Amino acid sequence: MPLRSSQDVVRVRQRVRDLAVQLGFSLVDQTKLVTAASELGRNTVDYGRGGDARIEVVSGSGGEGIRVTFEDQGPGIPDVELALRDGYTTGGGLGMGLGGARRLVSEMAIESTLDEGTRITVTKWKRA
Fold this sequence. Notes:
Blueprint: E1 2-3, H1 6-22, H2 27-46, E2 51-60, E3 63-72, H3 80-83, H4 97-104, E4 107-113, E5 117-125
Helix pairs in contact: 1-2, 2-4
């Protein structure tokens, strides 16, 4: 799904919520995943100069889950570990975005290359 505007972020959030409902995620886990997707989608638009999101249902030894991949060709993240620290921001926000998103999901992977872009993949597993 394209991520070029705040309306695109809303569409990604809705698609993630719809899948979470279909898979029977608890309301709490739906909210966590949608919140993480919203934050990462907004970052893709605001800092990555737009990009794309891929949403997929995945299966693993722990059952079913939802994986969302955000990809852009923006400036990249110079120091991923620093960017994950609470309070760090390059914008005007609270600096809770990446670290907060990481706490809301089961798994998070970040690949970023300066001047080439960033790919962030998050997975939330459905708890039994």
